[in-house]
Amino acid sequence: MKELVLRPLEQPACGLSAESISCDVFAGKSVEEIEALEVYSGNRRRRLGDFFSVSGEAGDTPGETRIVIEGDVPRTKWIGRGMSAGEILVKGSTGMYTGAWMRGGRILVQGSVDSFAGMMMSGGELEVQGDAGDYLGCAYRGEWRGMRGGSILVHGNAGTEAGHCLSGGRVTVMGRAESFAGVRMRSGLLVLGSAESRVGAQMTGGSIVVLSRTEMLPSFELVDRVSSPEIEGVSFEGVFEVYAGDLAERNPKGRVYLKVE
Amino acid sequence: MRVTHRDVVCSFCGTLCDDIEVDVEDGRIAEVRHACRIGTTKFLSASRHEHRLLKPMVRENGRLKEVSLEEAVERAAEILAGAQRPLLYGWSSTSCEAQSVGIELAEVLGGVIDNTSTVCHGPSTIAVHEAGFISCTLGEVKNRADLVIYWGANPMHAHPRHLSRYSIYPRGYFRERGHQDRTLVVVDVRRTDTARLAQKFVRVQPGRDYELISALRAVVNGRKLPMDEVAGVSREDIEELAEMMKSCSFGVLFFGMGLTQSPGRHRNIDNAICLVRDLNTYTKFVIMPMRGHYNVVGFSEVLSWQAGFPFAVDFSKGYAWYNPGETTANDVLQRGECDAMLVVASDPVSNFPKPSVENMLKMPIVAIDVHPTPTTMVADVVIPAAIAGIEVEGTAYRMDVVPLRLRKVVEPPEGVLSDVEVLQRILERVKEIKG
Ligand code: SF4
C-alpha cells in the first residue's frame, strides 16, 4: 500500500467542503494532480493544495491507497465521501459528513467527528476514538432507509439520533448516546454504553443493546429476561431485560436489550 | 374623503383573515373593522410614520448616517458580493414576490438562504420529509370538523380569530350549529386561555409530549398500557382521548411551537403525524401547523419551486444543497461560518439564541425592514421598505397553503420602495460586480 500525507495549512472559518479527499479520487494521481483537486471554501472554488501540503505517493487503485491527515481538520467536511476501498487515517478531529455514503475501506479518526458521520453508509469501517456529533450513521433528510451495511465504532459519546433509520450494518457507541438513538430503525444492530432517553423511538425492526439501564418509552413492552444472549450474531455478557417495540407502530419487530446485571 | 376597502387581507399572522374592512381618509388609515387587536394595530401603525424607517442609512465611523438609496444599494451589494458565505435570512413577513427575488440573489451570491422556520416550524418540515403529511384547508375544517385539538398552541393569543373564523365557532355546511356541533380539546403544559374554552384539557408534563403521543398511538393501535400514567396524564384520560379521536367523524390536530420547540422537536411532529395516519384507519383525521408569520408558508412554497427544498438552502457550490443541522441559519451562525448577512423583514438580534447573536455582531449586516428594530440598529446598511399588504400588493400563503392576494390600501411614505424593488436593485448591482 502506498501512502499519501496531507499536512493541514489552515482551516478556513467558513468551512471547507473537501469531497475530493478520498482514496477513490486520489488513486492513480500525482502529487501535483492531487494538489490541484477542487475544494470549496464557502462559495470560493479553491485547490486542495491551498489548504494542505501534499507529499508521498498514491496507489494505482483505491485499495492500494492510504491517506494520512497529519492533524486537526475540524472544519473540513466530507472526508472520505463515497469511498469504496483504501484507508484514511486522521491524526486529529474532522468536520461534518466524515465517511458519508462510504461503501468500503476504512477510516480511522483519532480525534472526534462532527455531525452526520457515516450518513447513508453501505459498507466499510469507520472508527472514531473521540466523540461523534448528532446523526451518527443516519439517513439523509427524507430518506427512511438509512445506513445499510458496514460498521461504525465510536469510543466516546454520540449526539442525538445515532443510528437514525438504521437499515443494516452495526453502529457502536461505547460512551453515552443522547436522545433518540435508533429512531425509526428498521434492521441491523445498535450498541450503546448508555442512552439518554427515547431509545428505539418508532423502531420497527433490528436490535438495540444498551449496556446500562435507561428509561423506556411507554410504547415498549417488557417481554423477556435473558442472560449472555447472542444478538444479531454478536455475543454479550450479563443479564438483559428484553423490550419489544415500538408498539406505537403497527407490527413492530424491534427489540431493545437493557443490561441489568 | 373617506374610502372603504373591503375584503382586505390582514398581513400579520398565518390566519391571513381576508374579510377586513379598512377606511382610508386623506391617504391615511382611519379605521379598521373585523380584524383582531393585533391585526388592527398593524394596519394603524402603517400611517404613524414616526415609528417607521424612512431613509436609507449606512454606517460610517460607527454611526448610521442617512444616504441616498443608490449609495445604500451600492454598499449592500459590495458587502454581499464580497462575502464567502453570506446568509440571507428573514423572509416570512414579506410577499412571495420579494422572496422569489431573494432566492435568486442567494443563488447568484452562492449564499445560504433560510427563513424564520428555523426558529418555529422548521422541525415540522423535517418531520414531513419522513412521515408525509395528511392535511386539508381551513375551509374543510370549518365545514366538516367535529373534533378540534390544539396541541402546544394558544390561538386565543397568537392567532386570535382562528377559532371564530375556521375551527370552533363558525357554522359550517355539515356543522350547522357551529360550536355546538364540535368538541374542543387542548393539550398543553398549562391552562391557557384557549384551554379555558375547551371541553377537555389535558395537562402534559413539560418536555414529555413525545411520550404522551407514543402512548396515544399504542392505545389507538389496540394495545393496553402497562403503566397508570404517562407524562403526567392518567391512563383513563389517555384512553378517553384516544376514543374521542377514533370516534369523531372529522378530526383536526392543530399544533404549535409548544410541540415544535420542546424536547424532541421534529420527532414530536413526526410522531404526531404518525398518530394522525393511524387514526385514518378508523375515521378522517388531519393535522396542521399553526404557522405564525403571515407568509412563512409562502417562503417554503417559493423556495421549493425555485430550489427544490422548503428552507435552509445552501447555494455555495453552485447548486442547491439542503440539510437542516448544517444549512440552517442558527447552525451556520453558531459555527461562525458566515461572514455577512442580509436580513429582510425580521429581527434575529432579538429572537436568536445568544451565541448566534454574538457572531452576528462580528459581521456586516444589511437590513431591509419597515420599522427600526434591534437588528436595524446594529446593521451596517439599513434600507426602509413599504409594507406588503397595506402599501404594496403581493401574494401570501395562509397556514393551510392557500395563496391569497395582498391588497394595497394606502401609498407608502415618500421615497420608500417595496422590498421587491429594493432587492431587485441589489441583485442587479451584485450581478454587475460578479460579472
Ligand atoms: S387573526 Fe391574524 S390574520 Fe386575522 S386579523 Fe388577527 S392578526 Fe390578522
Structural account:
The complex is a heterodimer of chains A (261) and B (435). Chain A contains 2 helices and 19 strands. With 261 residues, chain A is mostly beta strands. In chain A, the strands form 3 sheets. Chain A has a 13-stranded mixed sheet with strand order 5-1-6-8-9-10-11-12-13-14-19-18-15. In chain A, strands 4-3-2-7 form a 4-stranded mixed sheet, with no helix packed on it. Chain A has a two-stranded antiparallel sheet with strand order 16-17. Chain A is elongated, with a radius of gyration of 19 Å. In chain B, helix 3 runs parallel beside helix 17, helix 8 crosses helix 9 and helix 8 packs parallel to helix 11 (266-279). In chain B, strand 6, helix 3 and strand 7 form a beta-alpha-beta unit. Chain B is built from 17 helices and 21 strands. Chain B is α/β, with parallel strands linked by helices and 435 residues long. Chain B folds into 3 domains: 2-47, no CATH class; 57-118 and 294-434, Rossmann fold (3-Layer(aba) Sandwich); 122-289, Dimethylsulfoxide Reductase, domain 2 (3-Layer(aba) Sandwich). The longest helix of chain B is centred in the last third of the chain and has 16 residues, at 419-434. Chain B is 36% helix and 21% strand. In chain B, the strands form 5 sheets. A 9-stranded mixed sheet of chain B has the order 5-4-19-18-17-6-7-15-16. In chain B, strands 10-9-8-13-14 form a 5-stranded parallel sheet. A 3-stranded antiparallel sheet of chain B has the order 1-2-3, covered by helices on one side. The A-B interface holds A 12-15, 17, 40-44, 96, 115-116, 134-135, 140-142, 144, 179-180, 183-184, 198, 201-202, 217-219, 221-222, 246-250 and B 83-85, 109-111, 126, 129-130, 210-211, 213-215, 217-218, 221, 223, 225-227, 230, 263-264, 267, 270-271, 274, 278, 315-317, 322-326, 335-339. Residues 10, 12-13, 15-17, 35-36, 38-39, 159-161 of chain B line the site of iron/sulfur cluster.
